[in-house]
Fold dTTP/UTP pyrophosphatase.
Amino acid sequence: MIDKKIPIYLASKSPRRRKLLKLLNIRFKSFSVDVREELQDGEHPVRTVKRLAMDKFNAASKKVKEGIVITADTIVVLNKEILGKPRSKKEAFETLSKLSGNTHTVYTGFVVANLSSGKKIIDYEKTKVTFRKLERKEILNYIDSGSPMDKAGSYGIQDDYGALFISKINGCYYNVVGLPIAKVNKAILDIIR
C-alpha cells in the first residue's frame, strides 16, 4: 500500500494520465510542465520516450522539492517512423490512413522519483496495436469529432470511436491510453521502501 503521507505529483497535462493514476486510489496533485518534445533522427523509440520523460522530470523537479514525482511520454511508431500528435486535420488524416490495416507499436517512457530519498526509476512499456482497414469517411468523421488532435498517433484507444479502429492489441492496454499503470504502481512502491 502506498503511504498516504508522501505527497505525490503527476507532472502531466493529460486528462487520461490523471484518470489512470486515480485507479491506484491515491491522492495526488497534477500540474503541467512546458517541455518541447523534440524527436531526434535515428534515435531508438525506447531511448526517445525515456529521454522525453526525463526532460519532463527535470522541469517538474524545479516546481516541487519533496515527495514523489511521476512523468511520462507516449509515442506511436509505425515502420520506424514516429507518429506524434497531429498539427492539423490533414496530418491526422495522413496518420490514420497510415495506421489503417497495419500493426504499430506504442511506447510509453516514465519516470517515478522520490525527491526526498533521491531514488528514481526510469522505465518504459511497449504494446503492439493492429488497426483494421479504415474507410475514408470514418477517418473524416473521427477527425471532425476533434478527438485525434491531442493524441500521439492521432487516436485514442479509450475513445468510443477510436476504439472501433482496433482489431487486436498485444500488451498493456493502459500503456496505449498513456500510462502503464501496473509498472508505475510497482515503481512507486519500490521507491518508497
